[in-house]
Specification:
The protein starts with a helix and ends with a helix. The chain folds into two domains: about 35 residues; about 210 residues, no CATH class. By secondary structure, it is an alpha+beta fold. It has a nine-stranded antiparallel sheet. Strand 5 and strand 6 form a beta hairpin. The chain is globular and about 50 Å long. The longest helix has 25 residues. It has five helices and nine strands, in the order αβαααββββββββα.
Length: about 280
């Protein structure tokens, strides 16, 4: 009895498929194959449709650059001598300084021509190195990512193997550890010290700074770059900046040398002050 029911059920399924195919053909539609014959749907992605590395991660290898004014001032600002006008890259309003820290930032702004650490040829720090008006190159491997910046040969090595942060050390470019969250590269950086600024406008941090960068490629040529800043000694709460990183597409492109020479900055500043 069970055998007869199984055979009858199979015949009924086959007839149903055949009748459906005939009906679709009469409407001009192509017959839809049964589910077992259709290929499985691809795994869900985050919207990124660009190239991938052999291990399936978005391929970030190449030379990139931010095109904007964040290097001069993260917040909205008017144009002035040597500084183009720009929109804010800070989300949610102004940078949330503690009152005493805001006073120090304003003092930095007044003295930026001599006090900006970049004018002393210090390493730019994180995240400022990313949005300087210079390109940088990403070299991507399964267990670590290297980033080389054109400015003053600054470099970073981001370990992806779960290695713990080093303790009680300060580095100009910090101690970075990375992980992938879907198609987003997340980098946690600590041990940054207090000797760098976020921009030329005097926005600064303390040695308690912790930075979380999120590199989310939207296609083969653009990365959404979001950076969360956490420094309880300077700010009332964590805050985030966001901008776009563009892939440089010129033929035979490579990083060139930009040697920072402190005496050049001193000479330029002296000439400007003498003429005024």
């Amino acid at each position: 009895m069970n055998s007869r029911l199984t055979i009858c059920g199979s015949i009924a399924v086959a007839l149903a498929i055949a009748f459906t195919a005939v009906a679709q053909a009469q409407r001009g539609a192509a017959p839809r194959p049964p589910a077992a014959a259709r290929p499985a749907a691809p795994a869900a992605r985050t919207g990124y449709a660009g190239p991938r590395t052999p291990d399936g991660k978005p391929d970030l290898n190449g030379i990139w650059q931010v095109l904007g004014t964040a290097h001069w001032n993260l917040e909205a600002h008017s144009a002035s001598e040597g500084i183009p006008a720009g929109f804010s890259v800070v989300e949610g309003g102004p940078i949330p300084y503690q009152p005493a820290a805001l006073a120090k930032r304003n003092d930095n702004l007044r003295n930026r021509m001599t006090e900006d650490p970049l004018r002393k040829c210090y390493m730019p720090g994180v995240p400022r190195a990313t949005y300087l008006p210079f390109p940088f190159e990403i070299t991507q491997m399964p267990k670590h990512i290297g980033i080389a910046y054109e400015f003053a040969h600054a470099t970073r090595t981001i370990f992806l193997d779960g290695t713990a942060h080093m303790e009680d050390l300060d580095f100009w470019m910090g101690d970075g550890r990375g992980r992938w969250e879907g198609d987003t590269l997340v980098i946690d950086t600590v041990s940054l010290g207090d000797q760098t600024w976020f921009d030329e406008a005097g926005n600064y941090h303390s040695d308690a700074l912790k930075v979380v960068e999120r590199f989310t490629p939207t296609d083969a040529s653009h990365i959404d770059y979001a950076v969360t800043i956490d420094d309880p000694k300077v700010f009332t709460r964590p805050w985030t900046m966001r901008m776009t990183i563009y892939r440089r597409m010129e033929k035979n492109l490579e990083l060139l040398d930009y040697e920072c020479a402190e005496h050049v900055y001193e000479k330029l500043f002296q000439e400007r002050t003498t003429k005024r």
